Every structure is written in structure tokens, then in C-alpha cells.
């Protein structure tokens, strides 16, 4: 709790900047040193962080600008979050950019979002932050629901970065986890009917092989902004054991301190799990040693009695055997 309060004080005392370099590197290093100190020497950054980027429209309303401007501010927040995440040591980031349900929004807003997706997908492959960390870009979702111009931009971004091996960014467009799982189940059914899959192979592993982001590690930390406490049908199967952090800040206003707090909560949760498992193992070992000592003491007691009272020696050994 003490470390969380200190990160909150740091956040409240400093303005959010559009620059990826803010706060300065020495301050970011200090924040991570605090996380390591709080979580112990066994601390490791999460390998896979997923972001539910919520609050763009509310940010626009608060600023009294068009919703499209709120989404543009959200994209800048994504760039900041990517730079910070890869700097911390995260190797895989999943960003929920557009859900299938979002197609139900006002047509003008949907059209503006598709224009933004096309524009930013073309630019993201050339982004200096992603190039610095050698980040590969993948666009995940139901491409059939996307306009042709967005599919072309997505393909270009993926082809331009497919040789990169440092880290990976999955941008989810036209995605829903239930739709993903239904499609995976249907694929398994067809494979069974065509003899490509045996009935005994219908297991969880085979289902996960047919998910849209197959190859990504399981989600370690899932962060949602705007104060909402729900997953919104995002990576349900892949987040089975993820640590969930819900932040009250709107996505465009996300700061480094918010991300540091989420990483701290993830690390503290893992530390408690490690302490619990270590404690359980120690208790088990202590119990075994205690049981062994009791047995040794019983045998010593029998031998002592047998030496002092020869007449009951046979009875004593029979009781011990029983």
C-alpha cells in the first residue's frame, strides 16, 4: 500500500505530457527501482500486457472537441504506453482498438475511426519507438468486417515489420472474444469432419491453436482505463490467469505513473503467490521432518523400554508393529 501511495503522489504532482520521453529516464528508472524494492529480488516484468483503451470519447467531451479528436489523443496515449512498456521489459502488448460491437455506433464516428485506423496503421510501422525496440506489428480480428482501405494498410504494416524479433504489438480491430472462440470451435468441427483431427484431440490446446493471436504468450497483466470494471469480451481465453488492473483515468490521460502502478500491483500479486507457494512447500517439508522425528523418537522409546523391562519386550514390539 505504501508503494502505491508514493506512485500516486508522483502522478498527481506531475502533468501528463504527449512526449514519450516524459517523465525523464532517471525518474522512470527510479519508479522501477521502487517496484523492484516492493516486490523483491524475484520480480520480473510481465511478458504480455493487454490494454482495454477506454475513455477516448469521454476525454473528447471533457475537452469539448469532436470524438475523432479524442480517438487521436488515444492513439498518442498508445504510443506513449508502448514506449514505456517495452522499456520496462514487456515483450508482447495487445491493444483493443475496435470491437465488433463498435460497428453499432454512429456511422460518422465509425467512418472516422476507420479513417484513423488506416492513417495510423500506415504510420505505426515507421514509428521510431517501435523501430527502436524492434517491434513486429500484427493486426488481429475479423478482417472481413473491415473496409478494404484498412485491410490494405494492415497488410502493409504487418509486411513492413514481419522480420522484427525484439517484441510484438497486436492491434485488435473488429474483434470479440466470443466470436473468436465460436470460430475456433467451428474450425475444430470441420477438421473433425474431414479427418484432420481425431476425437481424442479435441482438447484445450487444440482450441487455443485456432485463436486469432496464436503464438502470443498468455496475458500476464490486463489494464483497463476509464473506471469501468469489465473485460468487454477481450481475450477471455488468453487472460484466464491474468492479473486485472482497473484504472480510473481516461485512456488519453494515461501517465507513466499509472502504468507503473499497474506493474507494481501485478508484481505484488505474484510476490504473494510466490510467498504462499514457498510457505506451503516449507510447511509440507516441516511436517514430513516432524513426522519422521516422531517416528524416530517412538523407536528410541521402545528400545529404551525394552532394555529396562525385558519381560514386556515382545509386547512392546508388537504394539509398535501394529
The string of secondary-structure elements, in order, is HHEHHEHHEHEHHEEHH
The unreliable regions are: 15-20, 309-322
Tell me the Rg in angstroms.
28 Å
Tell me the structural class. Answer: alpha/beta
Give the overall shape, derived from the CA principal axes: globular
Determine the oligomeric state from the structure.
Answer: single chain
Distance between the termini: 55 Å
Arrangement of strands in the largest sheet: 3-4-2-1-5-6
Number of helices: 11
Percent strand: 5-15%
Mean pLDDT: 84
Total beta strands = 6
Biggest beta sheet attributes = 6 strands, parallel
- Approximately how much helix is present in the residues? 55-70%
List the helices and strands and how they pair.
Layout: H1 2-12, H2 25-39, E1 48-52, H3 56-63, H4 67-88, E2 92-99, H5 107-124, H6 128-132, E3 135-140, H7 148-161, E4 167-175, H8 177-193, H9 204-209, E5 221-224, E6 243-246, H10 256-308, H11 313-321
Parallel strand pairs: 1-2, 1-5, 2-4, 3-4, 5-6
Task: Give a brief description.
The protein has 322 residues and is α/β, with parallel strands linked by helices.
Question: Would you mind describing this structure in some detail?
Answer:
The chain has 322 residues and is an alpha/beta fold. It contains 11 helices and 6 strands. Helix 3 (56-63) crosses helix 4, helix 5 runs parallel beside helix 7 (148-161) and helix 10 packs antiparallel against helix 11 (313-321). The longest helix is centred in the last third of the chain and has 53 residues, at 256-308. The two termini are 55 Å apart.
Amino acid at each position: 500500500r505504501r508503494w502505491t501511495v508514493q506512485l500516486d503522489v508522483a502522478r498527481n504532482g506531475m502533468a501528463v505530457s504527449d512526449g514519450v520521453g516524459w517523465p525523464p529516464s532517471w525518474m522512470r528508472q527510479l519508479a522501477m527501482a521502487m517496484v523492484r524494492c516492493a516486490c523483491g529480488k524475484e520480480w520480473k516484468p510481465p511478458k504480455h500486457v493487454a490494454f482495454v483503451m477506454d475513455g477516448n470519447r469521454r476525454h473528447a467531451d471533457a475537452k469539448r472537441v469532436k470524438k475523432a479528436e479524442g480517438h487521436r489523443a488515444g492513439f498518442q496515449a498508445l504510443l506513449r504506453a508502448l514506449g514505456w512498456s517495452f522499456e520496462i521489459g514487456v515483450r508482447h502488448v495487445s491493444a483493443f482498438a475496435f470491437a465488433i460491437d463498435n460497428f453499432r455506433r454512429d456511422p460518422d464516428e465509425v467512418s472516422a475511426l476507420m479513417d484513423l485506423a488506416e492513417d495510423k496503421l500506415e504510420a505505426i510501422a515507421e514509428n521510431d519507438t517501435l523501430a527502436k525496440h524492434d517491434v513486429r506489428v500484427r493486426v488481429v480480428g475479423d478482417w472481413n468486417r473491415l473496409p478494404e482501405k484498412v485491410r490494405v494498410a494492415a497488410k502493409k504494416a504487418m509486411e513492413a515489420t514481419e522480420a522484427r524479433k525484439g517484441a510484438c504489438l497486436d492491434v485488435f480491430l473488429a474483434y470479440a472474444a466470443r466470436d473468436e472462440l465460436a470460430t475456433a470451435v467451428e474450425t475444430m468441427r470441420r477438421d473433425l469432419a474431414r479427418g484432420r483431427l481425431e476425437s481424442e484431440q479435441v482438447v484445450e490446446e487444440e482450441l487455443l491453436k485456432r485463436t486469432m493471436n496464436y503464438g502470443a504468450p498468455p496475458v500476464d497483466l490486463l489494464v483497463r482505463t476509464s473506471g469501468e470494471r469489465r473485460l468487454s469480451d477481450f481475450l477471455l481465453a488468453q487472460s484466464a490467469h491474468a492479473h486485472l488492473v482497473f484504472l480510473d483515468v481516461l485512456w488519453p490521460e494515461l501517465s507513466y505513473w499509472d502504468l507503473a502502478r499497474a506493474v507494481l500491483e501485478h508484481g505484488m500479486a505474484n510476490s504473494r503467490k510466490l510467498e504462499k507457494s514457498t510457505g506451503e512447500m516449507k510447511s509440507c517439508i516441516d511436517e514430513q521432518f516432524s513426522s519422521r522425528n516422531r517416528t524416530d523418537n517412538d523407536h528410541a522409546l521402545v528400545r529404551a523400554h525394552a532394555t529396562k523391562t525385558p519381560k514386556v519386550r515382545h509386547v512392546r514390539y508388537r504394539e509398535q508393529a501394529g
